[in-house]
Amino acid sequence: MHLSPSQCQQARLAKDPRYDGLFFTAVKTTGIYCRPICPAPAPKEANVEYFPTAVEAAQAGYRPCLRCRPDSAPGSPAWLGTGATVKRALTLLDEGALMTQSLASLADRLGVTDRYLRQLVTEATGLSPKAYSLYQQCLMAKKLLHETQLPVTQIAYASGFHSVRRFNDCFQKRFSLSPSQLRKQGKAEQSLGQGIQLQLAYRPPYDWKQVHGFYAARLIPGLEWQTDNSYGRTFSHRSGAPDQHYQGYFTATHRPEKCCFEVMIQIDRLCGLIPVIQNIRRCLDLDADSDRIAYAIRHAMPATDAHHVLTGIRLPGIWSPFEAGIRAILGQQVSVKAARNLVEKLVQLNPDSGDVRQFFPSPQQVLDTDLQQLGMPQKRRETLQHFARFAQSHPAGLDAPEKDVLALPGIGPWTLHYMRMRGLSDPDIFLSGDLGVKKALAQWDHPVHESAASPWRSYLTLYLWSML
């Protein structure tokens, strides 16, 4: 645990939201574990123990609190104290990877054996990959039971269970309550077409102005939309088996007084709900520990006085690695505005796009598009086609070895790193070859120790962009 027991004690007694999700308090006398912001009276220190994750508290035999609902806490950054492979594995498990593929397939995607993957996850969480995934599925089901009016059968399916009986047994075993006991009586059931409304919490501070402005400069009308306090976009998933395809849209409204976003999701198939929720969290960077990140950037730029800029800094993501790759290719050697215009035209050429809602094209749709309609050099059109073919043969996209991506004509280190920074939300990418970064460094009269910002160099890149 990166927090000492005395730090945890002070944080829980103060109910400090900046520590929400960084640790959990388990009460020995009740057998329940809570978030540090739990509204219940604080128990005596002698009666508590601390865990860095909800999974470890559950593994020790504790049940989640029904008042503060640990299932709603922001997640701890996966890159803290873990290697790259286990970090990526836990991210994919949180997204429901084992709901649609076997452990062997997941291990192959990560480039390791299933035995080694099992060892890594067990060492990191104390649970096997399957047990860890099941617990995350149950936590998601618990959140849906609390916050939506979807029928229990639909919640079971959305959470990755193929039978209600299996769902009930698994839920009862982990929470000592049945789904129907947890749900408040008298709730009117809701159809999928009415949309799903959820609250996604973050750990304050959160610089919404920075995130809003970043998206606004790159916004594609119809694909995305904004108001002063909201951001939304469409999404479409067309890889894998046909029964795993889904599409829809969401709008996330910022509620700073609640330290959360209220999210409305319209989706045509519930099989995609968990990946969509996790992707919204990633794109809005809801699980970042911004205080720690700001400290690292100030360490890398010791002469800076940028408290107002760094407070609550976040890394706005792009919906998929494929979309990030296409945007990066279209953005090569042109301004942000010119790149946005090219992306907008490509989206309009997608046959799935309508007058109101537009969708980013799939790899096959890019290959089927007449790219001559894009005002750009022929070599760049060919790069788009090469990348689309690569994405078709590598469904995991940028999980492929870097050398394979860099072998594609027209793909260099800047393009690859931009894809990873925004398409996978890799926190440790420093775009040293970026023109904007070079201009910012040229304006700065002091040395920049970019290695000192690791593992948050992506945020240093963002900060340097903000200086222009």
Automatic annotation (TrEMBL):
Enzyme class (EC, first level): hydrolase
GO MF annotations in UniProt: alkylated DNA binding; DNA-3-methyladenine glycosylase activity; DNA-7-methylguanine glycosylase activity; DNA-binding transcription factor activity; methyltransferase activity; sequence-specific DNA binding; zinc ion binding
Alphabetized Pfam families for the sequence: Ada_Zn_binding, AlkA_N, HhH-GPD, HTH_18
Gene Ontology terms describing biological process: base-excision repair, AP site formation; DNA alkylation repair; methylation
SMART domains xrefs: AlkA_N (SM01009), ENDO3c (SM00478), HTH_ARAC (SM00342)
Cofactor: Zn(2+)
GO CC annotation terms, alphabetical: cytoplasm; protein-DNA complex
EC number: 3.2.2.21
InterPro entries according to UniProt: Ada-like_dom_sf (IPR035451), Ada_DNA_repair_Zn-bd (IPR004026), AlkA_N (IPR010316), AlkA_N_sf (IPR037046), Alkylbase_DNA_Glycosylase/TA (IPR051912), DNA_glycosylase (IPR011257), HhH-GPD_domain (IPR003265), HhH_base_excis_C (IPR023170)
Keywords attached to this entry: Activator, DNA damage, DNA repair, DNA-binding, Metal-binding, Methyltransferase, Transcription, Transcription regulation, Transferase, Zinc
Residue ranges annotated for the HTH araC/xylS-type domain, each copy included: 87-185
Keyword DNA damage among record annotations: yes
Catalytic function, reaction form: Hydrolysis of alkylated DNA, releasing 3-methyladenine, 3-methylguanine, 7-methylguanine and 7-methyladenine
SUPFAM superfamilies recorded: Ada DNA repair protein, N-terminal domain (N-Ada 10), DNA-glycosylase, Homeodomain-like, TATA-box binding protein-like
Keyword Ribosomal protein: no
Protein name, entry field: DNA-3-methyladenine glycosylase II
